[in-house]
Design the sequence.
């Protein structure tokens, strides 16, 4: 018996609604996984004193466990993109997530500082897969540019909400128990997400037939626009990670609050990243690429406000503006990068993540010298100039270079003429 037009329309709407629910579930499952994985490292900040005391080492030696996590987190990023393109993104994500859950939990049983550093290093290596492969999977799942950008922004926002909230979570858990409870709690939370990922996600096949890292990256780097676009993320990492790492100590020094209260204040940065990320695509569609310039200015004003300490009541909106500027710039750059090689989004995201975290590592290292010479005021002012530069450069590269195919000098001249005419 042939179905009526109304029945067919109802079936299509039902299937469409189910599909949208599955996509939304995918976004939030991966976002929550990112929340815990990203926070897994930043939760170490408030517990380093306890780790140093238990193992009878200095704070500098205890901080080695943070470096042990971050170094493979940045370096191994470059491996997982091609692996995901070859063997399937969901398979790589779930395997890596299981690894982070196991080794985060095992860190709670470390018997000396060296065993803790080794366990954290393996944990960081597994965690390196989650961000790039997750974002490339989101790129594959959504077709509409606005929905894709909003979804990527939501996931990225949850990642950095996890990073920003980690100080408060780590400080709170260590206060009621010990530093071991912090790692165990993160491991259990990640394990729960792994079970949910296995239950609800579909394991797809890879998009390429042969794994070749040389071929994957030679193709990506030979693209005329991709390298200069992902390179912008190095400057984003320098400006944001390089300065955010020092924000906790700065707030403690200025306010006299304990690390738990400071952690709650820092959560505003992550909350802004989450809220802004969810609407990044909608904002971009309404305003266009000028949003990049606006984000650069907002980031500069926010960091200048932070550097010239006047009142905690001004710092709160400044932190929110800082998080908003960061997520708009980051999501727009990532979204543009994915469009260049849609069939190899995993590889593209590995390049993007590698640039961002290496830039962050360089920023943390350089800012030690800046802090010693120029104090916090100079550190945050330079970070503000860096994020403002990202706004200008990304507007030129994404908004003008890609559309008009001009050289850097020509595009700057054209931009000047356009502004002059306006």
Sequence:
């Amino acid at each position: 018996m042939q179905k009526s037009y109304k029945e067919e329309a109802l079936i299509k709407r039902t299937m469409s609604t189910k599909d949208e629910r599955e996509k939304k579930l995918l976004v939030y499952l991966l976002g929550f996984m990112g929340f815990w994985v990203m926070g897994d490292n930043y939760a170490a900040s408030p517990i380093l004193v306890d780790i140093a005391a238990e193992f009878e080492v200095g704070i500098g030696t205890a901080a080695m466990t943070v470096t042990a996590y971050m170094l493979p987190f940045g370096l191994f990023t470059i491996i997982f993109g091609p692996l995901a393109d070859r063997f399937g993104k969901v398979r790589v994500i779930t395997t890596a997530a299981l690894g982070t859950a196991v080794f985060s939990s095992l860190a709670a049983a470390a018997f000396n500082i060296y065993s803790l550093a080794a366990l954290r290093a393996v944990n960081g290596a597994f965690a390196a897969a989650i961000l790039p492969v997750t974002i490339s999977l989101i790129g594959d799942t959504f077709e509409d540019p606005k929905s894709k950008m909003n979804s990527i922004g939501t996931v990225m926002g949850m990642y950095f909400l996890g990073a920003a909230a980690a100080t408060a979570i780590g400080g709170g858990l260590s206060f009621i128990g010990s530093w071991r409870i912090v790692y165990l709690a993160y491991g259990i939370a990640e394990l729960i997400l792994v079970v949910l990922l296995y239950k609800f996600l579909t394991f797809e096949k890879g998009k390429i037939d042969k794994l070749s890292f040389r071929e994957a990256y030679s193709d990506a780097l030979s693209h005329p626009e991709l390298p200069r676009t992902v390179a912008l993320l190095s400057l984003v990492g320098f400006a944001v990670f390089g300065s955010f790492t020092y924000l906790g100590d700065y707030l403690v020094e200025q306010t006299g609050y304990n690390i738990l209260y400071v952690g709650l204040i820092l959560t505003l940065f992550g909350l802004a990243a989450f809220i802004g990320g969810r609407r990044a695509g909608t904002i971009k569609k309404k305003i266009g690429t000028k949003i990049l310039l606006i984000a650069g200015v907002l980031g500069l004003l926010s960091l200048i406000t932070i550097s010239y300490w006047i009142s905690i009541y001004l710092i709160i909106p400044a932190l929110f503006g800082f998080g908003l500027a960061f997520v708009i710039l980051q999501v727009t750059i990532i979204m543009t990068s994915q469009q260049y090689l849609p069939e190899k989004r995993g590889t593209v995201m590995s390049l993007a993540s590698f640039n961002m975290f290496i830039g962050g590592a360089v920023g943390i290292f350089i800012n030690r010298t800046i802090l010693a010479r120029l104090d916090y005021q100079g550190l945050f002012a330079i970070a503000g100039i860096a994020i403002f530069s990202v706004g200008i450069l990304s507007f030129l590269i994404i908004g003008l270079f890609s559309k008009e195919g001009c050289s850097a000098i020509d595009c700057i001249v054209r931009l000047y003429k356009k502004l002059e005419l306006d």
